[in-house]
Amino acid sequence: MVFFLLMQFVWKYVDDLVGKGIEWYYILELLVYISATVVPLALPLAVLLSSLMTFGAFGEHNELAAMRSSGISLLRLFRVLVVFVAMLAIGAFFFADRVIPVAQFKGKSLLRNITKKKPALNIRPGIFYQGIEGYSLKISEKTGPEKNELKNIIIYDHTAKLGNVKVTTAESGIMEITPDNRFMIIHLDNGQSYEEHLPTKRSDRERKPFSTSVFDRAVIRFPLDDFQSGDMRKETSKDFNMLNNNQLLDAVDSLGVVLSDARVHFATSMKERFSPFSGDTVVLNIPDTLGKPQEDILQNFDPFRRKLIAENALRLARSNRSFYDSKFTELHWRERTIARHAIEWHKKYSLSFVCFVLLFIGAPLGAIIRKGGMGMPVVISVFIFITFYVMSISFEKMGRELIWHAWASMWITPFIFLPIGLILTYKTANDAEFMGMEFWSKIGRTIIAPIKKLVAKKK
User: Fold this and answer.
1) Cα dist. 187→182, 190, 209 in Å?
2) CA torsion, ordered 158, 160, 166, 169, to nearest 10 deg
3) What is the Cα–Cα distance from 30 to 176, expressed in whole angstroms?
4) 366 with 377: CB under 8 angstroms?
């Protein structure tokens, strides 16, 4: 399962990993880190598939019947599996708490540094090479013992970002890299240069001024700073999925304090904005020329001042609305950040519990279908796991969007599947009629028979 999920990662990032001259041990190190990060997804699926295959093989070879005839119940067979999965669950928890955060941190840092690296310097004949920023090169042939003698060279200079306004051609040249690997130098022989000039006057635009020059020998230097490997293991900032449980709890507490302070500051600021007067009454300086004050406050001012008052009130309202929206967005972002940390904390515990749940689903189903190997068990386990995974992702997203609490979003899916597993285990242990394949085959024949008759009549 780890290998299967690891191949998904390889296909996703193959364009970022290939063709950049990265040393092989960096790629291997990255795959090791990614292998550790997919364990929470691969382990439950592996438990489900292995339990299905094991009990399916027992049923297929009549070993379950032999055990039961000897007085060994299905629940007695489960004892060893329960102990084994309990040890597996404990190991999975410590693995998720201690190993996966480190693998996430180092793997994401290494992947980010690899993706930022420029492709390896590989100029091929007949193809425009655009790996050097600001330039586009094309050659027709590479000769010489070190393949550094070039023929029919075309160089477009895009550093001015005005299009193909400057081009240099040469019949031949020699390419070399400086000892410090910072520059690539090409010595050009028998060439010419063409450059279009952007006129400043409108009258000169129709003339389309340009300049050309012919040379016997010229030198062009290209910077190669982007091709330096640097420190591929350079670390970046940590995210919520790169923390262990203790760090997650500390982060939740710290973020909660910051959120509380932000809410208090937000409430205080809004009160100050909407309560600009310290007293309970407001005194308006109404002009004496208007006579007795009117009940409508705006009617106490002349039209010009009335317009100014309305415009000022509208400006203040827009300013307050903008302040409210920005602060509300900030508070919502802080709440979502806390929810993500809390979800990650619950996820480390739910991983161990999910192994138990899928064991009690896979083992009874294996005893029912009575098929081992990689055929039917794989189909059934993949179907069950896809259903489980889609539900888990959907509920987790609801928790991240603050629709549900963090604990509910992570625990509701296992507790939905737990009763199903317990019922399957109980009914299989007691040889319930509806748990046999013969029962479902009979129901299938009963449903299909009328359909066959209807189709036969129409023909």
Assistant:
1) 17, 10, 28
2) -50
3) 33
4) yes
Helix axis angle, 2-12 to 24-37, nearest 10°? 130
CA 51 to chain CA centroid, Å, is 31
What is the C-alpha separation between 26 and 184, in angstroms, rounded?
26
155 strand-pairing partners: 137, 168
Q: Are 350 and 411 in contact (CB under 8 A)?
A: yes
* Residue 187 DSSP one-character state: E
- Per residue in 102-133, pLDDT tens? 898 888 888 877 766 655 566 788 888 877 77
Q: Are residues 81 and 159 in the same domain?
A: no
> Domain tally for the chain?
2
Domain end call among 171, 197, 227: 227
Cα separation, 17 vs 107, in Å, equals: 13
209, 354: one domain: no
Nearest alpha carbon to residue 26 among 100, 107, 93, 104 = 107
Task: Return all residues near 309 (Cβ < 8 A) that are at least 6 apart.
Answer: 298, 301
Residue range(s) defining the domain that contains residue 362: 1-117+242-459
The answer to whether 48 and 361 have CB atoms below 8 angstroms apart is yes
Give the pair of three-digit tokens for residue 434: 């509806």
Q: Give percent above pLDDT 70 in the chain.
A: 83
> Of 156, 184, 183, whose CA–CA distance to 169 is shortest?
156
Residue 122 domain-assigned?
no
CB 186 within 8 A of CB 157: no
Given a contact cutoff of 8 angstroms between Cβ atoms, the answer to whether 192 and 152 are in contact is no
What are 39-98's pLDDT values in tens digits?
888 999 899 988 888 888 888 888 887 887 888 877 788 888 889 999 999 999 999 898
CA distances (Å), origin 437, targets 215, 431, 444, 452: 87, 12, 10, 22
Please tell me whether residues 139 and 24 are part of one structural domain. no
Which pair of structure tokens corresponds to residue 132?
């050097």
Q: Name residue, tokens 């304090």.
A: 257
Reported as type and span, the H/E element at residue 38 is: none
**Model pTM score:** 0.66
On whether both 310 and 223 belong to a single domain, the answer is no
